Amino acid sequence: MKTEQLALFLISPDSTVVEAMQRIDRNARGILFVTNEQQKLLGVVTDGDIRRWLIRTGELKAPVSGLMNTEPKRISRKEHAKAHEVMVQHSITALPVVTTKGVVSDILFRDEQVAKKKKPQGILKEVPVVIMAGGKGTRIQSIASDIPKPMIPIDGVPVLERELCSLKEQGFTDIIITVSYLGDVIKNYFGNGDKWGVNIEYYTEETPLGNAGALFKLRDRLTDDFLLLNADAIFDVDFNRMVSFHKEKNALVTLFTHPNSHPYDSGLIIADQNLAVQAWLTKEDKRPAYYKNRVNAGLHVISPQILDTVSVDAERIGIENPDTGKICKVDLDRMLLKPLAGSGRMFCYDSPEYVKDMGTPERFYAVEKDYMAGRVTAKNLKNKQKAIFLDRDGTINKYVGFLRDIEQFELLDGVTDAIKKINESGYLCIVVTNQPVIARGEVTYEQLDEIHNKMETLLGLEGAYLDGIYICPHHPHKGYEGEIPELKIDCDCRKPKPGMLLRAAKDFNIDLQKSYMVGDSESDILAGKAAGCKTVLIGEDDYGQDYTTNSLLAFVKQEIDNNPESKK
């Protein structure tokens, strides 16, 4: 970087907040590095830091030394080769290069490093990506009214730019962006995508076409399965993994689904054991008393064949209907996807990876906080995850012996608060439970699903959720009336064996040594030890566990809430 370019990113500690805002506006990168007269690095200031400072104090003439981060990440000249790795690891977009004396000699940017990287090895046949960026973003205009919603910066980088960088890193380089409101802002910023190592084409909606109308206009360019993404969401998802799932299922559509903290006011996806979508319940639809917390996140893999299966006249899209006076539009969910429910051609790709809409100011600030804390990138399943495995009976719900009747299911006091804290900590929350009542013929799979739906519903009503539920239906002992012979086996999943934990570790890329197994019995402790987890007993007995507690909430408060090391 030339000296005059470098100067755009450096500022003295005595400079005011106003001066910092002006310089950030000039460099268009949303970041400044604070240096002394000798250009020695002292700290870093982002546009996010400035925004939070103004919200908190409103002081424009304060020196930037009062709001800068005094421990910025940096690398030496010899470490140049690992710059991209450092930026990904710490979820930062710019990295100063310093001399042995701490003097800033260069600044590297993540998008530029991405563009230099070779195409990742082992990715699938390249899949095109369609990004819908035409929304007006009325609800979030208090954040930024003069730019389209996808261009709102998070830690100095537009949301859409973060999406493109993530896609490029995974090998997805053919991008079509649909634009409408203030579309020229997007076009002028990204151009043809060369700077980010991708190829961008645009489709401009002169009149609103609905959130799927542009797909019909693009039909000739969509010849194979493609990713369909929203431009106003923050996510970090292993899309190659999702595309592989889609192809394995020979699906027309694959929906990215996940649990969330408010399923009671979200659309729900009902799927069978094979993850084929059976029902699509909108917020307006009547739902069952108890339901699985599975929500459509707005990320899709779609076969263009679906565009040929619906009665939509592409030539009429965007044209006024003379009978109604309304513009003909196409709604993705209601007209294309929901009718596929029950067809066996639409599947759920369940994942705990980070996907959140930032459509309101409250959601935007929550997402920004998560990004700054590193939670967004950390949840990508390419990265090793940490989990807290929970037994069910006696740990989550009151112990009543073999639970056969859904009316007997009752959450223990404090469990909801504990699971909410686990959700917020970055740990996955996964239930692993022996259910011999299946093998004994005392409860059907459908009845057990209903019990677990009740558990998820009760948790969801209080803002808590489970990332996964694993059951062992087997029982080694024969002689029960109504038993199911094929399930009366000595399996590898029934606790104290670790099979359920090992399966979850494979599904979610979990580092078992950094995970916990929490339960109220010896079999829970032995299963956790066999899997290599730290173990927690709720009770007073000694089975060689690592921790002993009187409740799940007490453990979470002690080891997770109050222990910063556990959150890393």
CATH topology (level 3) name of the largest domain: Spore Coat Polysaccharide Biosynthesis Protein SpsA, Chain A
Number of domains: 3
- CATH architecture level-2 label of the largest domain: Alpha-Beta Complex
> Roughly how many Å is the radius of gyration?
26 Å
- N-to-C span: 34 Å
Question: What this model shows, in words?
Answer:
- With 568 residues, the chain is an alpha/beta fold.
- The protein folds into 3 domains: 3-108, Roll (CBS-domain); 118-361, Alpha-Beta Complex (Spore Coat Polysaccharide Biosynthesis Protein SpsA, Chain A); 384-567, Rossmann fold (3-Layer(aba) Sandwich).
- The chain has 18 helices and 25 strands.
- The chain has a 7-stranded mixed sheet, covered by helices on one side. Strands 22-21-20-23-24-25 form a 6-stranded parallel sheet, sandwiched between helices. The protein has a 3-stranded mixed sheet with strand order 1-2-3.
- Helix 13 (415-425) links the parallel strand 20 and strand 21.
- The radius of gyration is 26 Å and the shape is globular.
- 41% of the residues are buried.
